[in-house]
Amino acid sequence: MKKVTLLLGILSSTSFCAANQVSEAQQPFIKRYENQKRIIAPEKARLNNEPEPDLSEGFVSLYNGKDLSNWTARGGYSTFEARADRIVGTCVKGSPSTYLSTLRDDYNDFIFTAELKWVIDGNSGIMFRAQHEPMRPYDRVFGPQCEMEGFAPISGRQRGWSGGIYGQGYAAWIYPLWLEAHSAVRQALKKDDWNRITIKANNETVKTWVNGLPAAHWVNDQFLKGFFGLQVHSGKQGEIHFRNIKVKELNTLPKLHMANGIKIGEVHSDSAIIWTRLTESPERNTDGVPFPKSVPGDPNSVWPDTQPTFPDLSIMQGSVCGAAGKVRLSYWCKGAESAAHTTQWERVYPQNDYTHQFILTSLDSAAQYEIRVEGKNEDGNTCQSNGSFITAPATDASSDIRFVVTTCGDYPRRDDPLNGHKIYPKMQALQPNFFVHAGDIEYYDKPAPYAKNLKLARFKWNRLYAMPYLRDFHSHTASYFMKDDHDTTRDDAWPGTDYFDLTWEQGLATFREQVPMGDKTYRTVRWGKDLQIWLVEGRDFRSANTTTDSPQKTIWGSEQKQWFFDTVRASNASFKILISPTPIVGPDRWNKNDNHANPGFSCEGNELRAFMAEQNNMFVICGDRHWQYASVDPITGLREFSCGPASDKHAAGYSEELRKDMHSFLRVKGGFLRVDLDSPSKILQFYHHAVDGSVVYEESFSCL
User: Fold this and answer.
1) Residue 489 in contact with residue 505, Cβ under 8 Å?
2) In angstroms, rounded to a whole number, what is the distance separating the alpha carbons of residues 202 and 192?
3) Residue 530 half-sphere exposure, CB side, CA atoms within 13 Å?
4) Are 415 and 652 spatial neighbours (Cβ–Cβ below 8 Å)?
5) Phi and psi at residue 600, in whole multiples of 5°?
6) Distance of CA 297 to CAs 63, 290, 300, 413, Å?
7) How is the chain split into domains, by residue range?
8) Is 312 helix (H, G, I), strand (E, B) or coil?
9) Rounded Cα–Cα distance for residues 139 and 482 (Å)
10) Which helix (H) or strand (E) holds 144?
11) Under 8 Å between Cβ of 579 and 621
């Protein structure tokens, strides 16, 4: 499979050579240099197997095309001059080696490239991460140098070590190009023409290329920051021209961020939970290696059992690596920052995917709170993320309420590749009091990648919630998160259902790790005098779908079901709404056997529908289904509203031809559901919205 082979080749691009053979023509140089203290022995040399980096974007020129105002000469008195599109270095007989050095001296991680041309042959090179020591009569320059030695023979023969690493002023040769594996690059220089040198330095690893051919691969922990220098070596002659001198800095921002922002969850009248995660980068990796696709009929596709292992997820497209450090939270009522409460610093740990959840209590009801989450690490880097939310009104307070609901919104089916799902800014513009995600937030059992283990499951969460639309929305909207099958382990899962190496227990723990949630995954929340919602758990307690239906077969489990009956009976809210991750009323497809609208759970479904129909002003909102609908149970009269998936790309599985008499509305498209409560008039309104925010259906009810 071509794409998989390419991917694995990229992942293993920094391998050691098992038998690093010295070229026969290079044997004389072994005897000459083998006793140098820091030279890397042939059998220990790492090979550069990577292609030359892309040099087309993100680079800054180090030469302004006019003068040498950003440079200074060090080490000798050979001359350099600006000459149109190039810098010309000329050897002055008797001068020590001279280095035209950048005034800036803190380049650490970068890709540097330049072109050199010898008009008069002479030794040269590029100093990088270089240091200098003031001395008389000339500064001492020392550090690593990428050799560009020209064409003069060494010891009577052509050496060809341009692109090797020389320890200028402190070590002599470090990484010579004497291996058989270096044969091609030893022949790379073009006489009387321009020659491109490229240096990539990232943390302790340095790699070089000459005219696109890989040369050195050196690991060093001594020189990690410094200046660049264009060398004219001491000697009798030499005129070297340098042009297209440019650099692209890597990891220039402090290595501590909150790419996943914050999530504000479980908001009540007096409490809330704030979630955050520390990351190495401010955004997801958009330039990484793409995951292989799974397209039926495509011979290059991969499937769960043939998917590669991806040993380094940090290089993959969409990655958001976590970062060690500490976090703290400050929160205050709007306009009263001087009275802010600030928590202690809390450390984040890799075993929790660098996440932390702050539990806030003793909040004021119906109050707008502003929050600030700060991060810091031991290197002195800091970051912060700001947000806001509104607490629920007190139980006896009349208040207008607006909330929105969606379901089924994974990363591959987002409708804005750069920003995420388009519904989020549309929902945010409506200024809802709160938001409910009714489950299938991510799909572990869908490709690019299949989340066959815990690392890949976390990868999918981090990638999704680094999308700008989602991150901005959740920073300012109270949210309640519900899970279903795909974000537990796999389709139609029940207790004990693993997905390859992702265990059932890991699936449950990961959900609660990645979203702010309280002690139980089923809960009820009162939003003032007139509205109470119930959020139920549909996976943790269910019977196996394959079990024969009976009064004992269950989705909710006996404890949750009794809790539901008791709390609904005890409620005096004007309107009661059950939000379920799966349908209660339906209708659903004939071949499904996973929810209360299916024949396989008829006994419990009938029980629940009958109970809710007996309550005044009780409605059902459901997720899971990839289409929008409003329906009325023909037996009990219970009404259900399916919010629909988060994008049109995700809409599927039903059609207008399947429309039933119980449907008052059916639309096989994406979007979201909005619910408005007009408290003074006791009117509850349901609105189905399209992805673009337009209203496609509405229905209202007065309190009976």
Assistant:
1) no
2) 32
3) 18
4) no
5) -65, -15
6) 52, 20, 9, 20
7) 17-249, 401-702
8) coil
9) 66
10) strand 140-148
11) yes
Q: Which amino acid is at 95?
A: S
Full DSSP string of 25-50: GGHHHHHHHTTSTTPPPGGGPBP--S
For the chain, the 3-state helix, strand and coil shares in percent, each to the nearest 5, are 15, 35, 50
How do residues 343-389 score in pLDDT, each as one tens digit? 999 999 999 999 999 999 999 999 999 999 999 998 888 999 999 99
Same fold, 17-249 and 401-702: no
Task: Say if residue 660 is exposed, middle or buried (CB neighbours under 10 Å; 0-12, 13-18, 19+).
Answer: exposed
In the block, residue with structure tokens 């009714």: 438
User: What is the per-residue pLDDT across 205-260, written as a single tens digit (0 to 9) for each?
Assistant: 999 999 999 999 999 888 888 999 999 999 888 899 999 999 999 876 567 999 99
**Beta-strand pair 434-437/401-406:** parallel
3-state secondary structure of 384: strand
Q: Which fold has domain 17-249?
A: Jelly Rolls (2.60.120)
Fold of 401-702: Purple Acid Phosphatase; chain A, domain 2 (3.60.21)
Q: In angstroms, rounded to a whole number, what is the distance separating the alpha carbons of residues 420 and 282?
A: 16
- Exposed e or buried b per residue across 251-274, where buried means at least 16 C-beta atoms within 10 angstroms of its C-beta: eeeeebbbbbbbbbbbbbbeebbb
List the structure tokens of 235.
């000697």
Q: Determine the residue type at 88.
A: V
Question: Which segments within 461-581 are labelled E, that is strand?
Answer: 478-481, 523-526, 531-535, 575-580
pLDDT of 14 strictly over 70: no
Of 10-14, 131-135, 639-643, 659-663, the range with the lowest mean pLDDT is 10-14
Cβ atoms of 165 and 208 closer than 8 Å? yes
What backbone torsions phi and psi does residue 668 show, to the nearest 5 degrees?
-90, 70
Give yes or no for a cis peptide into 308 (omega within 30° of 0).
no
**Bond prior to 290 in cis (omega within 30° of 0):** no
Q: Each residue of 471-493: b (16+ CB within 10 Å) or e?
A: bbbbbbbbbbbbbbbbbbbbebb
In the block, tokens 């072994």 appear at 30
| Calpha distance 438→407 (Å, rounded) | 5
665, exposed or middle or buried, with CB in 10 Å at 0-12, 13-18, 19+? Answer: middle
- pLDDT at site 704: 75
